[in-house]
Every structure is written in structure tokens, then in C-alpha cells.
Amino acid sequence: MRIFWLLFSYEWRHFRAAKGLVLLCALLLLTGLYGIYYGTTEIERQRQHLTTLPELTRRNVEELKVKFPGPADAGDIGYYHTTYAVHHPDAWAALSLGQRDVNPYYVKLRLLGLQNQLYATDNTNPMKVLSGNFDLAFVLVYLFPLLIIALSFNLLSSEREEGILTLLLAQPVSSGVVVGAKLAFRLAVVLGLAWLLSVVGMLWAQVPLDGRMVTWLGLSTLYCLFWFGVALIITALQRTSAFNAVTLLGVWLLLVVLVPSLLNLGVAAARPVPQGIELTIKQREEIHAGWDRPKTQTMNRFFALYPQWRDTATIRERFVWRWYYAFQHLGDLAVAKQAAAYANGLQQRYDLVEKLNLLSPAINAQSSLNALAGTDLPTHLKFQRSATAYHDALRAFYYPFLFRKVEFTHADYAQEPTHTFTSQPELDTALRGLGKLLLSVGGVFAAGLLLLRARPINPR
After folding, report:
1. pLDDT per residue over 75-95, tens digit each?
2. Could you state, in order of their start, the residue ranges of all structural domains in the chain?
3. Which letter, b or e, does each residue of 280-311 get, where b requires 16 or more Cβ atoms within 10 Å of its Cβ?
């Protein structure tokens, strides 16, 4: 053990002398701090945006009170009144933004057809969506492996090329102790940085003190260990430093870029999802056709679904609001199967990726961190279901006014239902990801140790 610590201290002195490596670690530390800053700033921006929505609703109500100073037809109110289904982020979202940068975190709703409103989003710079957001999870998953490669590509090859390894192994020390000390020092540096950034991020984002802290640190640690295991395998091949560097970068490109891209193409082919534009077009066609259908036909279809309103007066006017909202809702029902198929298709794609992400620890780590932060696809689909339920509640609130011809007064605004939804972590997904990373770490270290045993270290 004394020899191990002597070698460990030698690595420390060598590291301090290598100004380039020190600068690289400092640069990564600053990059990680920027990732934390960006993530917390983005989530704070979203929170501030969400806090303005009730005020927008209040202003809309005040405008309607001026527009309709007395009792009004509820159909007019439902048409002009806007409210919001809101998706509040969990504090952990600041560390792993996940889907919150590509999917809307609020939905502006009126009493009209739901599907067009559900998928309406603000314009976003496509180049920004393509590159993704720069949060702490991005730094850990995509940049930390590059630091590990920079620290470990010449684990033994530099000593061999300089003739030092022959002198070192001539001493009463085993090659396993040499490799272990070198790996242990590099592991201490990398994990020290990862844990430091994680703790700073948790404090900065003011995350709740719960078991997710341990899970986050566990995922980060195992992911770094995996890449050290890859470096151990390449070291065991006993090739030159140049070969090791190129091979490790090739493995990084394979596991972080190529495999995820191929996996995405394969999953898209295996689990085709209906195009959202087709759903929207069909709904619009159905709604536009409602103007030309006989009112009796439209209302009979509606009453078959809502028989409690069948005893309302027959429509003889050219236009009446309850007929208008009836065919709006029928337009939603006309594409209900397509909408369900779209959501189910997205969930099936996600589930298939979860089954196959053992092929790419980068995907596994990223999806696990997103699940831990409540920013993954299943959470967004839950929000959409919540928004759909809220729209149903709005219809249930307005229908008695519309079908019983009850006047809508100023006091009725306060009775309108409201909506809120807060992300919850997908802990099962995160824990499964932790188990898969543990398997990956065990696999690469077992392969590396077997290679070292099968091919003893050659000092020349």
C-alpha cells in the first residue's frame, strides 16, 4: 500500500507540472459552472414567464367585463376568454433541462377545438433546438469523457516511450499496482470535479434534500467509471499514445454520436408515429365541414355522447353558440384515435430506447438524469393529458350556460376552473439507468482486467 501511495503522489506532482492538463481541468470547471448558470437562468426565465400568465388571464377578464358590461351569452365569453394550462418545473430541471427546451411548458386554451391549441407553440430558432441547451447534464455526459480521454490516453504508453516504464517495473512493484495508482489518481481528479460541480449545481438550483442527490451522484460516478474502464481496455492493448488517443476518440464518437444517431433512426423505423400535421389538417377539415352539415345531424351526434343535454331546445336560428361548440368538439373526436396513436407512438419510441440504451451509456446517462429531473418525454406526455383534462373541465363548466341558456355574469369568472401541473421525477427510470450503468462499468472493467492478465505489461 505504501508503494501505491508513493505512485499516487508522483502522479499528483506530474499533474501539477503538466500545465496543459491543469488548464484543461480549470476550463472544464468553468464550463460546468456556465452550464449550471445557463440551466438555472433558463428555468428561472420559464418560472417568471409562468407567473405572468395569471395576470394575462386577469387582464383578459377585465377586458371582457368592459366588452360585456352586463350579463352575457356564455358562447361569447368562451370564444374570447383565454386561460392557460401550465407546466411548472421541478427544481432539479435546472441541472438537466431535457425536453423543456423543445416542448411547450404552457398551453393557451379557449373553448374551441383542443388539438390545434394543444400543439401550438412559440417560434423557436431551429439551430438552437438542434444544438440543445448547455446544462450541467450536458457537461457531465458529453464533455467529461473527453477530459477522461485527455488524462488517460497515455496512462502507460508515455512511460514506455520515454523508457521510464522499464526502470519502474524493475523495482519491487507489480504492473497492477502501477496501473491502479495511475487510474486512482485520475479518477480522483475527475470525480472531484464532477462531485464539486454537482454539489454547486444543487446548491445553486436549491434542490430539495432528498434521495435524488445520491442518485444523481451515483449516475455521475458510474458514468465516469465507465469511461475509465474504456481507457483501461485501450491501455491493456499496449499500443502507442497516438493510437490510444485516436482509438479513445473513436470510441467517444461511436458511443456518444454514432450509436445514438443510428438508434434514433432504428427506433423511428421500428415505431412509426403519425405525422402531427396530418392530425391538425384532419381536425380543421372536420371543423370546417361542420358549418355545412345540417344542424340536426351535428346535434344528434353530440347528444349521443352527452345525452344529458338532449332535452334542450331545437336549434332554429342560423347561428347559435351551443351548435358551434358542439361541432368544435366533434372535430376533436374525429382525430381522437390519431391523437392517441401519436402520443402512444412517442411513448413506445421512448420505451424502446429505454430497452436499447445499454448500447450507449451516454443515452442511458442522459435519459436517467432527465428522468431524475422530471424533464423527460413521459413527464411532458403527462402534462398534455393534464391539459386535455383541463379543457374537458372548461367544457363541463360552460355547457350548462350554453345548453340551459343561463346568462354569464361577472361573478361567474371566479368559478371557472384553473390548472396547474408540476413535474415529478421518474425515479424508476433513473434507478433502472443506474443499474444499467453498473452493468456497463462491470463489463468494461472485467474486459480490461482480463486483457491485462492475458497480456502482461511489456515495458518495451
Report:
1. 999 999 999 999 999 999 999
2. 2-280+326-454
3. beebeebbeebeeeebeebbebbeeeeeebee
pLDDT tens digits, 113-146:
898 888 765 545 444 444 457 899 999 999 999 9
CA distance 157 to 318: 87
Chain segment 305-321, per-residue pLDDT in tens: 999 998 887 788 889 99
pLDDT tens, residue by residue, 287-311? 888 888 888 899 999 999 999 998 8
Q: Which residues contact 380 (CB under 8 A, 6 or more apart)?
A: 87, 99, 103
Positive or negative, the CA dihedral 357, 360, 361, 365 is negative
At 314, the amino acid letter reads T
**Separation in Å, CA 368 to CA 66, 192, 259, 379, 428:** 51, 21, 17, 13, 9
**C-alpha–C-alpha distance, residues 251 and 248, integer Å:** 5
**Residue 26 burial by Cβ neighbours in a 10 Å radius (0-12, 13-18, 19+):** exposed
pLDDT at residue 165, as a whole number:
59
Q: Read off the DSSP letter of residue 458.
A: P
How many Cβ atoms are within 10 Å of 90's Cβ, its own excluded? Answer: 21
- The two most distant CA atoms of the chain are separated, in Å, by 104
Helix residue ranges, H only, 309-405: 321-334, 336-356, 361-373, 377-403
